[in-house]
Amino acid sequence: MKRYLFLILGVVLSSFMMLETQFSAQEIIDKTIQVSGGERYDNAIIHFKFRGKQYRSERNKGFYTLERKIDGPDGVIHDVVSNSGLTRTIENCSVPVTDSLITKISDGVNSVHYFAYLPYGLNASAVRKNIVGKSIIKGIEYYKIKISFNEEGGGTDFEDEFLYWIHKENFTVDYLAYKYAVNGGGIRFREAYNPRIINGIRFVDYNNYKALNLSTSLSDLDALFEKGKLKLLSKIELEDIHVYVSDDCC
């Protein structure tokens, strides 16, 4: 009798496992973008403040502008990255930017906007995505999605690697990690907190951690985080966020 009970239990458990929906990496990213704002990103004007600097972005039908304003010694420096490249003005007067600074300034503007709007951007044409497993952090199960970039269209930091922990049920990015090579290289692990929805678009802040050993695999960072083995470097906090979405959207 016990033998038959075990057989029945095994069949039931196998059935439940088969009923679990299996998503591809692309489907997971699609769902994650959708729950965080979806097509609203593509038709939005967004303002926010980060570490004393003003940022603004505007997207409409494939055209975009990413802006940053800084109080400099000669007045307000206004950098604009768009489909046409980089422009800089100081107190509304256009100033030339040397070739050696174009990439540095553009990357500085791009990176802040990129992280502010995650997961938007993960469906860019240069992005490669793969499921590398699942994990449990603080009792919650996550998909682990590795993000890498093609050299063509992947920007100056196309060799950087990213890993995203996406909530298995809510499809939110609750943790992310990345390894970069510039300035001697480094590894960062970010824990999202303070989620809020502003006019249909989700924003979060982050606790920003550092891995002490540069040979650490990104995939091991969740376990190190749970054991308290990562060093808290800073907080990534967006302030004074305003979102306007075109009536043509949604």
Radius of gyration: 21 Å
Shape: globular
Poorly predicted regions are 1-19
**Count of folded domains:** 1
Q: What would you call the quaternary organization?
A: single chain
Distance between the termini: 59 Å
What's the count of strands?
14
- Largest sheet composition: 7 strands, antiparallel
CATH fold type = outer membrane lipoprotein receptor (LolB), chain A
Number of helices: 4
Q: Mean pLDDT, as a whole number?
A: 88
- Arrangement of strands in the largest sheet: 6-5-4-3-2-1-14
**Helix percent band:** 10-25%
Determine the strand fraction and express it as a percent band: over 45%
Describe this structure in words.
With 250 residues, the protein is α+β, with helices and mostly antiparallel strands. The strands form 2 sheets. A 7-stranded antiparallel sheet has the order 6-5-4-3-2-1-14, with helices on one face. The chain has a single domain, classed as outer membrane lipoprotein receptor (LolB), chain A, CATH 2.50.20. It contains 4 helices and 14 strands. It has helices spanning 2-19, 25-36, 99-116, 221-226, and strands spanning 44-50, 53-60, 63-72, 75-82, 85-90, 93-94, 127-137, 140-149, 161-167, 173-180, 186-198, 201-210, 231-236, 239-245. 22% of the residues lie in helices and 45% in strands. Keywords: Signal. This is Deoxyribose-phosphate aldolase.
